[in-house]
Amino acid sequence: MSEQPLNPASATARAAAADDAGPRTPTVGAAGPGTRADDGSGPAVPAGDDAAALRAASFERQRRLRQEPRFPGGPAADPAGSHHERRIRSFQPRRSRVTTGQEEALQRLWPTWGLDIDGQRVLDLAELFGGLPVVLEIGFGMGEATALMAADDPGTGILAVDVHTPGQGNLLGLADRAGLSNVRVANGDAVILLREMLAPDALDGLRVYFPDPWPKARHHKRRLIQPEFLDLAAQRLKPGAIVHCATDWEPYAEQMLEVLTAHPRFENTAADGGYAPRPAFRPLTRFEGQGLDKGHVVHDLLFARV
What we know:
The protein is α/β, with parallel strands linked by helices.
């Protein structure tokens, strides 16, 4: 969500209007416990300790609401819980409207094709995908491209990770209608999945398509493609596995190229050491088409794990 700049003139006007309106109700605790405003009107103002207790109770209610699953039996609201460390994350969970079809898919298909990233176990990918080679896709949006790639390459399993509930339901529905058996939908933080739930050399590929570019300079630390992330990814990828990134944000593409080129465990597959042509297996998504209509240039990067 973008931040709205403060308009000094508006702030001054609001302050002047507040002064013209006369004195405000005393601050919390200023009039004594359980007392009313000086003029005897208005509701009782809680004392300092009581107000703090009310704020704490309200915060706890909101926390519980965030942790409650929207769809019983479906993806958890906070699968990893609070036992994991606080750190800067590359994504911002958001609650959006879920359609009837997406809700039905979540409730019907999640127990079979979905999994929560809880950090409590190591996944057996051979069992999960029937022995297929597995590619991890981080951030699949509404899942259209993922479903197309799964249909075009049924011999590869796709472990698709996202935190967007409507997209999770949409991908499950797409896979179900197309009769796909090589897609699994994971809910939660991909870093926890890589770090705690996958064995070394477990993956045959990694796809990161159009991640959040976090364009503001102070937010660049939130970008996913960083040296520390590549250190972790290199441990979970088999030798020769391909990391495939794509973005339509030019400064982020430049950072991706710089960071991947500098990492000793990855080698650029492009002969000139630059960007790669869009491979035929990556579908042109609706989101990408919108970017192209706006004049954005899409860059693909394909690096092999050495």
